[in-house]
Amino acid sequence: MDTEFVDFVRRRGDHHLRTAVLLTGDWHAAEDLMQSCLSKLYRVWHRLDTSTEPDAYLRRIMVNTHRSWWRARWRREIPRADLPDLPGPGDMGDAGAAAEDVRSALARLPARQRTALVLRFFDDLSEADVAELMGCSVGTVKTHTHRGLQAMRRLIPPDAAVNRTDTERSGVR
Protein backbone atom coordinates (compact mmCIF):
# COMPACT_ATOMS: atom_id res chain seq x y z
CA MET A 1 0.00 0.00 0.00
CA ASP A 2 1.20 3.52 -0.76
CA THR A 3 2.70 5.06 2.39
CA GLU A 4 1.80 8.60 1.25
CA PHE A 5 -1.87 7.58 1.04
CA VAL A 6 -1.75 5.99 4.49
CA ASP A 7 -0.09 9.12 5.90
CA PHE A 8 -2.76 11.31 4.30
CA VAL A 9 -5.59 9.22 5.78
CA ARG A 10 -3.97 9.25 9.23
CA ARG A 11 -3.36 13.01 9.07
CA ARG A 12 -6.66 14.17 7.51
CA GLY A 13 -9.06 11.25 7.90
CA ASP A 14 -10.72 12.44 11.10
CA HIS A 15 -11.47 15.87 9.64
CA HIS A 16 -13.07 14.35 6.55
CA LEU A 17 -15.02 11.87 8.68
CA ARG A 18 -16.49 14.77 10.68
CA THR A 19 -17.44 16.44 7.39
CA ALA A 20 -19.11 13.20 6.29
CA VAL A 21 -21.04 12.99 9.59
CA LEU A 22 -22.37 16.49 9.04
CA LEU A 23 -23.24 15.75 5.40
CA THR A 24 -25.10 12.53 6.16
CA GLY A 25 -26.43 13.28 9.62
CA ASP A 26 -25.58 9.74 10.71
CA TRP A 27 -22.32 8.30 12.04
CA HIS A 28 -22.70 4.90 10.35
CA ALA A 29 -23.63 6.41 6.98
CA ALA A 30 -20.64 8.77 7.32
CA GLU A 31 -18.29 5.83 7.90
CA ASP A 32 -19.73 4.09 4.83
CA LEU A 33 -19.34 7.29 2.81
CA MET A 34 -15.73 7.71 3.94
CA GLN A 35 -14.85 4.11 3.16
CA SER A 36 -16.35 4.40 -0.30
CA CYS A 37 -14.66 7.74 -0.98
CA LEU A 38 -11.26 6.65 0.29
CA SER A 39 -11.35 3.60 -1.95
CA LYS A 40 -12.17 5.85 -4.91
CA LEU A 41 -9.35 8.20 -3.93
CA TYR A 42 -6.89 5.32 -3.60
CA ARG A 43 -7.69 4.15 -7.14
CA VAL A 44 -6.51 7.49 -8.55
CA TRP A 45 -3.85 8.30 -5.93
CA HIS A 46 -0.97 7.48 -8.29
CA ARG A 47 -2.25 10.12 -10.77
CA LEU A 48 -2.64 12.90 -8.18
CA ASP A 49 -0.02 15.50 -7.46
CA THR A 50 0.45 14.56 -3.83
CA SER A 51 2.81 17.47 -3.21
CA THR A 52 -0.37 19.50 -2.84
CA GLU A 53 -2.94 18.32 -0.32
CA PRO A 54 -5.56 16.07 -1.97
CA ASP A 55 -8.25 17.40 0.43
CA ALA A 56 -10.16 19.15 -2.36
CA TYR A 57 -10.20 16.01 -4.48
CA LEU A 58 -11.51 13.88 -1.60
CA ARG A 59 -14.07 16.55 -0.73
CA ARG A 60 -15.37 16.49 -4.32
CA ILE A 61 -15.63 12.69 -4.22
CA MET A 62 -17.56 12.94 -0.92
CA VAL A 63 -20.03 15.50 -2.22
CA ASN A 64 -20.64 13.63 -5.47
CA THR A 65 -20.96 10.24 -3.78
CA HIS A 66 -23.28 11.61 -1.10
CA ARG A 67 -25.38 13.29 -3.80
CA SER A 68 -25.72 10.05 -5.76
CA TRP A 69 -26.62 8.11 -2.60
CA TRP A 70 -29.16 10.74 -1.63
CA ARG A 71 -30.76 10.61 -5.09
CA ALA A 72 -30.94 6.81 -4.96
CA ARG A 73 -32.58 6.88 -1.51
CA TRP A 74 -34.94 9.65 -2.55
CA ARG A 75 -36.27 7.54 -5.40
CA ARG A 76 -36.99 4.65 -2.99
CA GLU A 77 -38.21 6.67 -0.04
CA ILE A 78 -41.53 5.59 1.44
CA PRO A 79 -43.40 8.29 3.38
CA ARG A 80 -44.64 7.29 6.81
CA ALA A 81 -47.30 8.81 9.03
CA ASP A 82 -45.30 8.54 12.25
CA LEU A 83 -41.68 9.45 12.90
CA PRO A 84 -39.38 7.29 15.02
CA ASP A 85 -38.35 8.52 18.45
CA LEU A 86 -34.87 9.99 18.49
CA PRO A 87 -32.54 9.16 21.35
CA GLY A 88 -31.79 12.04 23.72
CA PRO A 89 -28.33 13.54 23.90
CA GLY A 90 -27.73 12.49 27.49
CA ASP A 91 -25.93 14.73 29.93
CA MET A 92 -23.51 16.56 27.64
CA GLY A 93 -23.45 20.01 29.20
CA ASP A 94 -24.33 23.23 27.41
CA ALA A 95 -21.75 22.94 24.61
CA GLY A 96 -22.59 19.31 23.89
CA ALA A 97 -26.32 20.02 23.93
CA ALA A 98 -25.85 22.94 21.55
CA ALA A 99 -23.77 20.75 19.23
CA GLU A 100 -26.49 18.08 19.33
CA ASP A 101 -29.09 20.73 18.44
CA VAL A 102 -27.00 21.82 15.46
CA ARG A 103 -26.45 18.24 14.24
CA SER A 104 -30.15 17.46 14.65
CA ALA A 105 -31.19 20.58 12.76
CA LEU A 106 -28.65 19.89 9.99
CA ALA A 107 -30.05 16.38 9.58
CA ARG A 108 -33.53 17.86 8.99
CA LEU A 109 -32.40 20.17 6.18
CA PRO A 110 -32.65 19.27 2.49
CA ALA A 111 -29.42 17.70 1.23
CA ARG A 112 -28.31 20.68 -0.90
CA GLN A 113 -28.80 23.16 1.96
CA ARG A 114 -26.99 20.86 4.38
CA THR A 115 -24.12 20.38 1.93
CA ALA A 116 -23.76 24.13 1.37
CA LEU A 117 -23.73 24.87 5.11
CA VAL A 118 -21.27 22.10 5.97
CA LEU A 119 -18.83 23.07 3.23
CA ARG A 120 -19.11 26.81 3.91
CA PHE A 121 -18.96 26.82 7.70
CA PHE A 122 -17.42 23.52 8.81
CA ASP A 123 -14.86 23.11 6.02
CA ASP A 124 -14.53 26.92 5.73
CA LEU A 125 -14.65 26.96 1.92
CA SER A 126 -15.43 30.02 -0.16
CA GLU A 127 -18.73 30.29 -1.99
CA ALA A 128 -16.88 29.77 -5.28
CA ASP A 129 -15.26 26.56 -4.01
CA VAL A 130 -18.59 25.25 -2.72
CA ALA A 131 -20.24 26.10 -6.05
CA GLU A 132 -17.57 24.16 -7.91
CA LEU A 133 -17.93 21.16 -5.60
CA MET A 134 -21.72 21.19 -5.79
CA GLY A 135 -21.76 21.74 -9.54
CA CYS A 136 -23.84 24.92 -9.39
CA SER A 137 -23.46 28.69 -9.50
CA VAL A 138 -22.24 30.91 -6.67
CA GLY A 139 -25.73 32.43 -6.55
CA THR A 140 -27.24 29.01 -5.97
CA VAL A 141 -24.79 28.38 -3.13
CA LYS A 142 -25.78 31.74 -1.60
CA THR A 143 -29.45 30.79 -1.89
CA HIS A 144 -28.93 27.35 -0.30
CA THR A 145 -26.80 28.89 2.46
CA HIS A 146 -29.33 31.63 3.18
CA ARG A 147 -32.29 29.24 3.23
CA GLY A 148 -30.36 26.70 5.30
CA LEU A 149 -29.44 29.32 7.89
CA GLN A 150 -33.04 30.53 8.05
CA ALA A 151 -34.22 26.96 8.61
CA MET A 152 -31.55 26.41 11.27
CA ARG A 153 -32.73 29.53 13.10
CA ARG A 154 -36.29 28.19 13.07
CA LEU A 155 -35.23 24.71 14.15
CA ILE A 156 -32.93 25.85 16.96
CA PRO A 157 -34.38 28.49 19.28
CA PRO A 158 -31.63 30.78 20.64
CA ASP A 159 -31.87 29.37 24.16
CA ALA A 160 -32.65 25.73 23.26
CA ALA A 161 -29.48 24.15 24.71
CA VAL A 162 -29.64 26.18 27.90
CA ASN A 163 -33.32 25.39 28.48
CA ARG A 164 -32.83 21.71 27.75
CA THR A 165 -29.89 21.24 30.10
CA ASP A 166 -31.67 23.23 32.85
CA THR A 167 -34.68 20.96 32.40
CA GLU A 168 -32.53 17.83 32.46
CA ARG A 169 -30.75 18.94 35.64
CA SER A 170 -34.03 19.55 37.41
CA GLY A 171 -35.31 16.13 36.35
CA VAL A 172 -38.31 17.54 34.43
CA ARG A 173 -38.97 16.07 30.99
From TrEMBL:
Keyword DNA-binding among record annotations: yes
SUPFAM superfamilies the record matches: Sigma2 domain of RNA polymerase sigma factors (SSF88946), Sigma3 and sigma4 domains of RNA polymerase sigma factors (SSF88659)
Coiled coil regions, renumbered to chain: none
Transmembrane portions of the chain: none
Keyword hit for DNA-binding: yes
Location of the RNA polymerase sigma-70 region domain: 13-76
UniProt domain RNA polymerase sigma factor 70 region 4 type: residue ranges: 100-152
Keywords of the record: DNA-binding, Sigma factor, Transcription, Transcription regulation
CDD domains given in the database record: Sigma70_r4 (cd06171)
UniProt family annotation: Belongs to the sigma-70 factor family. ECF subfamily.
Protein name: SigE family RNA polymerase sigma factor
Organism name: Dactylosporangium cerinum
Lineage, opening ranks: Bacteria, Bacillati, Actinomycetota, Actinomycetes, Micromonosporales
